[in-house]
Amino acid sequence: MALTKSEAAKLTNDLLTRGVIETIVKESQVLSRLPFMEVTGTAVTYNREATMPAATFYEVGDTWTEAAPTFTQISTALKILGGDADVDNFLQATYADPNDLEAEVIANRSKSVAHKFSDAFFNGDTTGDPKSFDGLTKALTGTSQEFAAGVNGAALTLDMVDQLVDLVAPGKPDALFMSKRTRRKLSSLRRASGNLLETDVDQFGQRALFYDGIPVLVDDFVSNAQTQGSSGPTTSSVYAVKFGQGVGVLGLEHGGIAIEPVGELETKDATRWRVKWYCGLAIFSMLGVARVKGITA
């Protein structure tokens, strides 16, 4: 069963691990909502529906013909994400609460893990970095689930947002990801139309924005420095995403996020901790993701 990282944290007995997961989730709009599937082995292979079998009207007594769907087999490998955190032994010994210092250092390293995953979620490209995984931008490039605001970019319109939402099926996207710049433009468009973006309280008790019931999530890793035709690198994108196996995007992991004590270092007076995560990203259905690109300032 797929769980979000925030739900997984509730099932974790280790307080340090739970704290790291909570830090990672709070640092990432992606990880606060993306469900994860446990993977046995180094990769997961799944079938993505390519075409549906055709249905036909028949007369009484007609000969019925068989039709079968076609699938594209996709294999997604787990990647190793993480980093080391060194706790200075002198500060550890003299700090008012050693546990607080240790937790602060590990939490700081955990933030960088969250940021790296979020960056790869949108911008990951195994051509440039084989150690990473492919993100939404690469997966959507050249597909029918992507369209440009203009040949050389253009300002965002509400029609573009509606077109983006309509590309996702079945139903509506679970989230719209965009930059702060684009969110400001979207808010301005709604005000000009006589409607405001709806607001509600999210799972962290913070005010959240919604567009026709779809959460509007601002992520700093949605770049404002993309190139579209002669406009660039000054344009941005909005991503519409459904989460879940069979319908959209699902995170992959083996064993969850681990925090391991490496031990005393030889070259300096410090103790090292390692935050590591065997993780990946699977797009089970291309209809579950979409992108409008080339949005100018």
Q: What does the average pLDDT come to?
A: 88
Order of helices and strands: EHHEEEEHHHEHEHEEEEEEEE
Gyration radius over CA? 22 Å
| Number of helices in the DSSP assignment | 7
The separation of the N and C termini measures 41 Å
CATH class: Alpha Beta
- Work out the helicity level: 25-40%
Do you know the CATH topology?
phage-related protein like fold
Largest sheet geometry: 8 strands, mixed
Domain count, please report it: 1
Structural class: alpha+beta
Q: Low-confidence spans: pLDDT under 50, at least 5 residues?
A: none
Description of the structure:
The chain has helices spanning 5-10, 15-26, 89-94, 98-123, 136-140, 158-167, 180-192, and strands spanning 3-4, 35-38, 43-51, 70-77, 79-88, 146-148, 175-178, 198-201, 207-211, 214-218, 226-228, 231-241, 249-264, 270-283, 289-295. With 297 residues, it is an alpha+beta fold. It is globular and about 85 Å long. The protein has a single domain (3-48, 73-295), classed as Alpha-Beta Complex (phage-related protein like fold), CATH 3.90.1690. 26% of the residues lie in helices and 35% in strands. It is built from 7 helices and 15 strands. The strands form 3 sheets. Strands 6, 7, 8, 9, 10, 11, 12 and 15 form an 8-stranded mixed β-sheet that branches. Strands 1-2-13-14-5 form a 5-stranded mixed β-sheet.
